[in-house]
């Protein structure tokens, strides 16, 4: 089983407008959706669609917290969130003719005690892997992630911002930065695949056994103790990029859970993520074709 921990989940409100926003004008639309979101939750959603046993945990509160639980349970995804006093946040993506605009609320303030409760809940599921992903709510420091990684015998995977990556002190099985996070965590300028792999190696030396980095248009790289791999992005029509990194990670972890090679895992991640960017919000597209499509993705070794 792969458990996800989302410390600062969100309801994702995605709204599509036919024209650019104009100051002082009311934009009207029938195209909008609400998804259960937050990076760990998304990983669980995509893992479930790929047939991997998963439970979504973390912190949730208020009406939007209830919405999250209800949505996930309707989709057949097991949840075990610790209830907090504050209200789970609403994150907004506005898709217009001229771009993709994302507004993320900072979320509620949380007490450190809730973190120990998540550790207790995780132990009940005895997961092989725990994925801790997304931002931290106010009141929760990076040490909370180290404590969760240490709270049981699982391998821990993190998808957190660059500053948090640098602050972590534990040993991690994998981290998944995007280009900006990789540059921030290693304090380097990254220009191309070789730079990204060099930065990934720097993170490996810092306690992350494997690094998968999403590079946007340039696809993704993976650095492991044995290999340096690059897979190009697939040529698809992008509706929005929300959830792209989460689905890359889910594809990699699903293949890894099936005992597949690093190259197959990277292909699987790129294939899943190319489906997710083709739909709006963090909805889960049909992923049944992924195992056929990934064979067409050429992975280069560096
Ligand atoms: O504010 P964070 O925690 O960094 O990111 C949260 C978020 O933008 O990430 C997901 C997409 O990756 C969305 O579901 C969610 O709204």
Automatic annotation (TrEMBL):
Signal peptide: none annotated. Keywords: ATP-binding, Kinase, Nucleotide-binding, Transferase. One of its GO terms (cellular component) is cytosol. The keyword Cell membrane does not apply. The keyword DNA repair does not apply. Residues 9-285 form the Carbohydrate kinase PfkB domain. PANTHER family: 1-PHOSPHOFRUCTOKINASE-RELATED, ATP-DEPENDENT 6-PHOSPHOFRUCTOKINASE ISOZYME 2. Belongs to the carbohydrate kinase PfkB family. This is 1-phosphofructokinase.
């Amino acid at each position: 089983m792969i458990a996800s921990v989302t410390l600062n989940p969100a309801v994702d409100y995605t709204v599509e407008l036919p024209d650019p926003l104009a100051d002082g004008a009311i934009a009207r639309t029938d195209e909008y959706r609400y998804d259960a979101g937050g990076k760990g939750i998304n990983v669980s959603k995509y893992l479930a669609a790929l047939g991997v046993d998963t439970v979504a945990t973390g912190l949730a509160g208020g009406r939007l917290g209830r919405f999250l639980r209800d949505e996930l349970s309707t989709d057949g995804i097991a949840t075990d969130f610790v209830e907090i006093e504050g209200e789970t946040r609403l994150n907004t993506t506005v898709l217009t003719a001229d771009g993709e605009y994302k507004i993320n609320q900072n979320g509620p303030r949380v007490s450190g005690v809730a973190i120990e409760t998540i550790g207790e809940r995780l132990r009940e599921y005895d997961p092989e892997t725990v994925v801790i992903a997304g931002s931290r709510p106010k009141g929760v420091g990076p040490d909370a992630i180290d404590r969760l990684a240490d709270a049981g015998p699982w391998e821990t995977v993190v998808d957190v911002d660059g500053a948090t990556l640098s602050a972590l002190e534990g040993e991690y099985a994998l981290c998944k930065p995007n280009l900006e996070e990789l540059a921030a965590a290693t304090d380097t300028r990254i220009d191309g695949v070789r730079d990204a792999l060099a930065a990934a190696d720097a993170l490996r030396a810092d306690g992350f056994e494997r690094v998968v980095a999403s590079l946007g248009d340039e696809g993704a790289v993976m650095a492991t103790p044995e290999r340096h791999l690059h897979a190009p992005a697939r040529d698809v029509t992008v509706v929005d990029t929300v959830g792209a990194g989460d689905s890359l990670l889910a594809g990699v972890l699903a293949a890894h859970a099936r005992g597949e090679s690093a190259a197959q895992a990277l292909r699987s991640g790129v294939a899943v993520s190319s489906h997710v960017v083709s739909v709006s919000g963090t909805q889960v597209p049909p992923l049944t074709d992924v195992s056929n499509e990934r064979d067409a993705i050429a992975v280069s070794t560096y």
